Amino acid sequence: EWSANPALHALTWALGRWQNGKRTLGIGAPVANIRVADFVEAANVADENEWTCGGVEWSTDSKWAILKRMLQAGGAEPTMTGAMIGCRVNTPRVSIATVTADKLLDGASFSMTRSRRDRFNTVIPRYRSEDHDWEVISGQAISVPAYIADDGAPRIKEIDFPLVQHETGKNGNEQVGQLAAYEVVNSREAGPWRFTVGPEYVGVKTGDVITLDVPDEGIDEQPVLVRSRSIDPATFKITFEVETETSAKHDFALG
């Protein structure tokens, strides 16, 4: 059954589109190499937020880039954990574990702010509009006044959302505004932070939120979002790359 759900299109693209036993489009990954639960979660979030995708992609383009654009329309981004294709969607989460200072192994790296280049306070989203003959238009700038005050001036970034469309029956204006707001607030999260822990945290996967409590580093019960992880097969030590997670940003972005 056809759907405008971005995550379902992305999952289908990861599996590949097939005709007569031949892959005609898409990545064509075995289902065993896809974290299907990630895409199911992203699909549910897209339905809840009424996020859709539409447009045209070409078989000559990068398969990974197309996957990224499909997920972008659903407020998500692809992930690779080992040989597993998954995705991480913007949605409120609760912490599932706590890492304290005594659990840290080897070296740890904590950057309390992003570089100035990576932090912005205003996004101008570009997307397609039926009212403009499906041309790409620039939408209203999405700004956070508190961030502008902190930075001392607007720091503007234009972001293309090529598979977000404003059309009859679908409010692409609101969708692209929410996605642009997420880009702004996510750019202000601190990170990336990297640290290594033991095998007791093997159940924590990319996209989960955990609590980091390392007072000596000025980190007190800080929720962090796991962006990636790697496991040393010889020692079973797990290295996480995370960024801070601010729960209030979700209500702001969706509003």
Would you write up a description of this structure?
The chain has six helices and 14 strands. It has helices at residues 6-15, 36-49, 63-72, 145-151, 172-187, 248-254; strands spanning 17-19, 22-25, 76-81, 84-89, 95-100, 105-109, 122-129, 135-138, 142-143, 156-166, 193-197, 209-214, 219-231, 238-244. The chain has a six-stranded mixed beta sheet, with no helix packed on it. Strands 7, 8, 9 and 10 form a four-stranded mixed beta sheet that branches. A two-stranded antiparallel sheet has the order 1-2. A hairpin with a 2-residue loop joins β1 and β2. α1 runs antiparallel to α3 (63-72). The radius of gyration is 19 Å and the shape is globular. The two termini are 31 Å apart.
Per-chain topology:
Layout: H1 6-15, E1 17-19, E2 22-25, H2 36-49, H3 63-72, E3 76-81, E4 84-89, E5 95-100, E6 105-109, E7 122-129, E8 135-138, E9 142-143, H4 145-151, E10 156-166, H5 172-187, E11 193-197, E12 209-214, E13 219-231, E14 238-244, H6 248-254
Parallel strand pairs: 5-12, 7-10
Antiparallel strand pairs: 1-2, 3-4, 6-11, 7-8, 7-9, 11-14, 12-13, 13-14
